[in-house]
Structures are given as C-alpha cells and as structure tokens.
Specification:
Elements lengths: L7 H24 L6 H12 L6 E5 L5 E5 L3 H9 L4 H8 L7 E5 L5 H10 L4 E5 L3 H13 L5 E4 L2 E2 L4 E8 L14 E10 L1 H7 L5 E6 L5 H6 L2 H7 L2 E5 L3 H13 L2 E4 L8 E6 L5
Parallel strand pairs: 3-4, 3-9, 4-5, 6-8, 9-10
Antiparallel strand pairs: 1-2, 7-8, 10-12, 11-12
Length: 282
C-alpha cells in the first residue's frame, strides 16, 4: 500500500508549527559549544518526536527552488536543525559551471545539487543526474518536475570503474543507501545497472563538461577511475566527499596525476573537497 501523502496546506501548517517549536533546540545545537549528550538527546528524544515517514516539508533552496524533504531522513533533520545542507559547497561548484554546457551529478539523490546546477547552467544547458535507487529516482523526478527543471536528465544507474551490475544496499533512510558500503538500518539488497562516467559521456556525444559532483557514499575513487577520458579532455571542476585519509589519499593521488589541485574553501564541511585543474583559481 502506498503511503498517504499529506495535503500541501496541512503539510505547510504542520511544518510551521514544528519549525517554531524546534527554534530553541536548533539554537542549542548550532550555538552551544559543548557537544556531549547532543547525539543521545537527538536520537532518543527529538527524532522520535518528529512526524514519521513519509511526512515531509517543503524546503526552499537559496535561489527559490523548493524540494520535498522528509523529517526523519538525514537530509531533512540536517535542514531542520542547521537551516541548510552543503549550501556553501554547491554554491562554490556552481561558479565553475559553463552556462549552456553540461554538468554531471553523480549521486544526485533527491535533487539538492541538481536543481542548483539546472538554474545555473541555463535552459540551453544539460545536467546529467545519476541515481540508481528507483524510489529515490522517482522523488528526484518529482522535485525536478515541481521546479520545471526540464534541462535535467536522470540516468537510473550506479557509476563505477567499469560497466556491469552492482549490488545496491537500501537503508531505511533512503539518503544513506549505497552500492559501496552496508548502511545502517539495511532494508534489502538488489542489483542495479552499473556504468562509468566515460561511457555515459560518450553516449551523450562527448559534450564539454564543466563540473562533476560525486557523492556516492564511499565509491568516489571508482567513479574517478571510470572517468579518465573526460578528466583528460575537459578537466571539469570536481566536488567530492571523502571520509578520512584511507578514502582521500588514493583519490588525491589519482587527481594530482591528472593535473588537479585540492582546495577546501572556507565553510566547507571537513569531508568535502573541491578539485580544480592546476591553472584554475578558487
């Protein structure tokens, strides 16, 4: 049975009340310097008090686009308590988007970055958004449709070093599902198609790609290993996530050998990095 969708008016009024009630808690989380006990309080008191799945709220992005977020997913709770999610990183990458060109969004999820790329690249440009999970891809499509982002094409495929199939691990929090690691709260595992950046790029006629965003829960190195031709020709600006030296070091070695330099502008989360061709400026 499909979950019942809240009527927009009810949803917005419900969200307004929740937003007001959470104001002192958000202030404590973001301004109070002592972190001890915050995680425990969040998991056992605050999270259970939020509306259960699939209750959602409309979140307005910095330039007016709106996207549906669920209260109990990581993305939803981060926005509720911090007022945004990686806005600085996406804004920085958008500086390098060539209007009318092509952008690749690998791990598009429900569209936070794809919508910003869509606005920046313009009606004559194209965003290729990769999202392998069928339910998440459907939510991505709904968010694109509600914002009339017709210049975004969804490829429902995982991305790696070589084509084939790969086992995809679905979490109860869809934003944490992964083809690379076993996520917390695993629901099921199933096979999905696997392509490479270079193959997808060739299929689209090898357009000039100005930016490449990669957020695939630990599979970033494999994505780059399958993107050698694109990197060598276009040297797109790259935004990626890496948790710790074990993930970052081989990524850094591959990209420096391809003529890239690493940057981490002010305001970036510690796990996020911007790689630019050696002659590019932040």
């Amino acid at each position: 049975m499909q979950p019942k969708t809240l009527a927009p008016g009810f949803r917005e009024r419900h969200h307004d009340a929740i937003w007001a009630a959470l104001w002192p808690v958000r202030m404590w989380f973001t301004r109070f310097p002592i972190h001890r006990g915050k995680g425990l309080l969040f998991r056992h008191v605050i999270l259970p008090a939020l509306p259960p799945e699939p209750a959602s709220f409309a979140y307005e992005l910095p330039h007016g686009e709106t996207i549906d977020l669920r209260y109990r997913e990581d993305l939803g709770t981060l926005v509720l308590f911090h007022g945004g999610y990686e806005d600085r990183e996406i804004a920085e990458l958008c500086k390098f988007i060539a209007r009318g060109g092509t952008a690749f969004d690998v791990g598009a999820n429900i569209g936070l970055s794809a919508l910003e790329f869509s606005r920046t690249i313009g009606a004559k440009g194209k965003v290729i958004a990769f999202e392998p999970h069928p339910d998440t891809a459907a939510r991505l499509r709904a968010n694109l449709d509600r914002n009339k982002a017709g210049n975004v094409e969804i490829l429902q495929s995982a991305v790696g070093a070589a084509p084939g199939t790969i086992t995809f691990n679905e979490s109860s929090d869809a934003t944490l599902s992964s083809a690379t690691v076993i996520p917390r709260n695993l629901v099921r595992s199933f096979d999905v198609p696997l392509t490479t950046v270079d193959l997808a790029w060739a299929d689209k006629g090898r357009p000039v790609v100005s930016v490449l965003k990669i957020d695939v829960e630990g599979g970033e190195l494999a994505v780059l290993q399958g993107a050698g031709e694109l990197l060598a020709r276009d040297h797109p600006a790259i935004l990626l996530e890496a948790w710790g030296a074990a993930q970052l070091d081989p990524i850094h070695a591959l990209l420096t050998s391809a003529g890239y330099a690493r940057h981490q502008p002010q305001g970036f989360e510690p796990r996020n990095y911007l790689y630019l061709a050696d002659n590019a400026q932040v």
